[in-house]
N-acetyl-gamma-glutamyl-phosphate reductase
Amino acid sequence: MVKVGIIGATGYAGNELVRLLMGHKDVEIMWYGSRNYIDKKYAEVYQNMFEIVEDTCLDDNMEELASKVDVIFTATPQGFLAGVLTEEILSRVKIIDLSADFRIKDVRTYEKWYKIEHRSPQFIEEAVYGLCELNRDKIKGARLIANPGCYTTCSILTAYPLVKEGLIDPDTLIIDAKSGTSGAGRGAKLPNLFCEVNENMKAYGVTNHRHTPEIEEQLGYAAGKEIVVNFTPHLVPMNRGILATEYATLNKKADGTLPTYEEVKAVYDKYYKNEKFVRVLEKDICPETKWVEGSNYVDVNFKIDERTGRIVMMGALDNLVKGAAGQAVQNMNLLFGFDEAEGLNLVPMFP
Amino acid sequence: MVKVGIIGATGYAGNELVRLLMGHKDVEIMWYGSRNYIDKKYAEVYQNMFEIVEDTCLDDNMEELASKVDVIFTATPQGFLAGVLTEEILSRVKIIDLSADFRIKDVRTYEKWYKIEHRSPQFIEEAVYGLCELNRDKIKGARLIANPGCYTTCSILTAYPLVKEGLIDPDTLIIDAKSGTSGAGRGAKLPNLFCEVNENMKAYGVTNHRHTPEIEEQLGYAAGKEIVVNFTPHLVPMNRGILATEYATLNKKADGTLPTYEEVKAVYDKYYKNEKFVRVLEKDICPETKWVEGSNYVDVNFKIDERTGRIVMMGALDNLVKGAAGQAVQNMNLLFGFDEAEGLNLVPMFP
Amino acid sequence: MVKVGIIGATGYAGNELVRLLMGHKDVEIMWYGSRNYIDKKYAEVYQNMFEIVEDTCLDDNMEELASKVDVIFTATPQGFLAGVLTEEILSRVKIIDLSADFRIKDVRTYEKWYKIEHRSPQFIEEAVYGLCELNRDKIKGARLIANPGCYTTCSILTAYPLVKEGLIDPDTLIIDAKSGTSGAGRGAKLPNLFCEVNENMKAYGVTNHRHTPEIEEQLGYAAGKEIVVNFTPHLVPMNRGILATEYATLNKKADGTLPTYEEVKAVYDKYYKNEKFVRVLEKDICPETKWVEGSNYVDVNFKIDERTGRIVMMGALDNLVKGAAGQAVQNMNLLFGFDEAEGLNLVPMFP
Amino acid sequence: MVKVGIIGATGYAGNELVRLLMGHKDVEIMWYGSRNYIDKKYAEVYQNMFEIVEDTCLDDNMEELASKVDVIFTATPQGFLAGVLTEEILSRVKIIDLSADFRIKDVRTYEKWYKIEHRSPQFIEEAVYGLCELNRDKIKGARLIANPGCYTTCSILTAYPLVKEGLIDPDTLIIDAKSGTSGAGRGAKLPNLFCEVNENMKAYGVTNHRHTPEIEEQLGYAAGKEIVVNFTPHLVPMNRGILATEYATLNKKADGTLPTYEEVKAVYDKYYKNEKFVRVLEKDICPETKWVEGSNYVDVNFKIDERTGRIVMMGALDNLVKGAAGQAVQNMNLLFGFDEAEGLNLVPMFP
């Protein structure tokens, strides 16, 4: 049994990690770290775990934890891991970081968008961006995994094949993303109160949301050049789910015509046909967040607009699963040589 | 592998059955029966099943089905099973009926409340009421299981120990139950439209809801006499979940005092301590439907009101799992000698 | 124009008061008191008021306010008004208090249930309980109005005629009430976060909610004796609306039979036929919270259960209107001799 | 008193018309037309109107109606009005049509997008597109008003000043719109059931939604040339509200730089400063649908993205008010010389 520690176990992503790991046959959770709930029973913080988890919350001592477990998940605020990480720790334990600390290679970009100083830039280089479908092989040998953001996972996977194969002009890419409220975390903040969110909808972080540079970096690798995109997140009155609607200008073929449905579909299939967790839907079926809820799937599809010469791409995932804890488990499976889907054979729950 | 057929596979309960059976290691679904969607791919009716279920919907020919599978789940409208059941069928296949056709022993009571003629009363006697925690042994040897209603399961389990042990006067029992909207089914009816249900709440079926006689019959067995109760269901703007709040007058002890918290708790523990799927919560913690969502748990608790001499009992479950498909699977596990929890080790999903 | 001051203008009830008073032709709001937002533009706290309210939030100095306005609404936490009220103030200004400070005549009862010391018990006697349909005449001449609680208004009006006329045994009264989340206020508390409330339902304050003694006192007056009731509030995933489902044993008539529908209906009509804001629905129509949303109506109805000898009464209102700000305006109208419905001719918004 | 008739009074927009007209001091509703509910009391179809509207539903006989009222609102399915309109009718009564029948000047475009034959193209020319802020003067003298679509009103008003003044390249315009579910109407259709919509989000009508040509025509007038845009609607789990997020490339100034915030703001102010119902929010405040709920306001704002050279424009309105019934009343006010805001002085309801 692989021994697991979680720092930040009482956030929504932490709780989802616990849910998923409870169904994983090869692991055992040894440490429920939560600075705010030390000595409190985990099941008192999350009553869904009553009679399932008997453990008590512990602190976030990475040093001690590194000596007790094989892998640490850090589902912590930005800057935490960068502030405590040492070579000593990394030499003893694998780390899967659900924060953004090691997602962005250019430390200046990180510091500009996150407005905090990065306290261990020396580990950025070796960190592997844990978007499993893109970096599977690199992940397998890594010590430090930067688990991607929720919006990012959805935004990237939805457009990746077309950027990679040059079907669209990446500089025309506009990503309009909508998220359920669990992405905002469990902090007691006025804007996240039920009455503020329910029956309401808004954009936020317009032109400056922190997931923007992460999307640009990864899609830039696919494009083979630096790109800038518009990324606009929206808050939607539902618990889980991200829907990304993405727009880009299709590059014309040599004969001056647009690629056909079949040609675009073939490109998606090239990349995702063998990917268990990416489902390219059938023609004209639009992804819906409810169809992936509770599961590790990303549903994607697209529609060509002959009139404007653009393509509309759509992707849907559960922000707490494929957008956070599920992908973290998928990364763990790769790291430890388990079946990549172990613990993730979750059928979406409907309704 | 036990071979399973489902009639009514495209209702919400049917879809939930499919979800649960996909995670059951000893069964295989051979037949997705759905009169309305014959020849349509199941995954086109429920896109959450895309790339998970490849089968096409079939009709509801019980005769043919009985020759192909070991157990049939009928998640069908009232009267369907009673209209087609024969000794021939029952001699070849186990049946777990999610409708009310065989739940009530007195056929006149059934016909009065359901306002339809019962077309195979000869099978009522042998049918076993499939509330696993109460009838475990009888279920194991049955051919025909009457799977309990969603409200009923919640209402009965919440009060059962106190009725059985005579702590409350069952004739004072008032059950105020609240349900998410999936209990109303997938029929396209105006009152179930999003805009009619959302931001709204109402009672319905006041004094005449069909689950009333089912509750009265089962709690009457526990009381050792016929009882009548008030049962009022309410529609709540959420997908899943039933919460039952139940009120009854506590019988005084010989010394004229009310039983204490500890005494009542001990009675609940007597019946539920070893029941995996019934969780008696800790003192003063009120059950919440979200804490059991997606799982087969029923959470129960109670509070004594010294001022009025009454006890307030509360129970919460997921109407599609313990209130329908989950209990059906639990019944199947008992019928076939599987671990009772096989396929049901579902951690509640939060949020 | 009557000059109005509001203390606690930035709570949900305060904001609703502003909404209603904006549509009142005889008043002018002079003071938007809000301790937490002093010097901030009111419309920045509530963007719905952008270009409607230009004022800036002020403090809660009652002394100063009393010299500037004709009436003060205090939509403040328990204990605030009792802590600052003086004869000096009361001699200069009318006060409509939306807190519970002056609702309960027995100060020991208040202190026991609210667990705070009452700091101006000398004003309790003269305060008039502002349930307009019951106390209309007394309200007109009062200086200090104790505006009823949201649950209380709904619970009392639903049962009042039957208690008053002796049709039910008030000691058998059980009130199962369900409320939208705005009743919990705008405080940034974890249990009120969207993800905690949405798709969830729970009881709370079981056997000890503070509205209990208020209900008991008022219905006790109607019964002509002290009574105790069970009152259980529940939190429902919607913004607005309270639904009270109430159960009581019907007193039999001299001939040993239960009263008929028509007899009970006549009693409701006796009290409410001329009440604009109480609508007794037609036979078999259950009240729904959505049908009164945004308006000052209370919809009530009932159903007799011949089997159990009980009656099920139901009432629905908008907790922020008839349950708080609307009733406060109705009280103001009575105090100042305006048409009782001025500013309250609000058609419920559906959907 | 102006006499009003409504055809299609039992749809959501029809019900909202009734709500608004009840608060209008100069009109009287004489006819509640509803083909599906003839002879049924209107208040039985919409219980919110109990004791407010005593009338019974009538048929949709336009001829008869034209002789009884001064203005007819048709809140009817596409094709209805075009199928029954005659010169005779138009000569006797003003018509405000909430359907799309007379919104599009090019009948071929209408027939292509709506896939129905237009049965009275002879009236298209004289019909005035009733977007009050754009066509105020023309509306005043019209006989036939084509009341704009909900998405259209929001989409056009959000971008109009920048298109009109040439600040953006209209051919780069991408409109990503999100709507509450009341926009889908009150028809009993499976995709609009609570459990299908709740906790879910999806795009629909991608590249072919019928509001596209209406947006293109109107913004084309502003641009002074034909334009094509991408318009993608989404279904959101809320009752009311549309949020449009719009993207376009900013035209550079002569000096090669982008316009500044102040310059863009000045353009919005030029068009909307004196418009009561369009609120240009303060810098960096994003429109939220809840802030306009129940009111006739459109809230708009924008953000310049220096990195991509694009501007992100946002607009929010209540689809049943400014997006349908409110705008219809605003048009009626213009037609009959009333104060343009009569009956529309509605403060948004929050929460």
Remarks:
- Chain C touches chain A through 18 residues (CB under 8 Å).
- Chain C has two domains: 2-126, 151-319.
- The first strand of chain C starts at residue 2 and ends at 7.
- Residues 321-336 of chain C form the longest helix (16 residues).
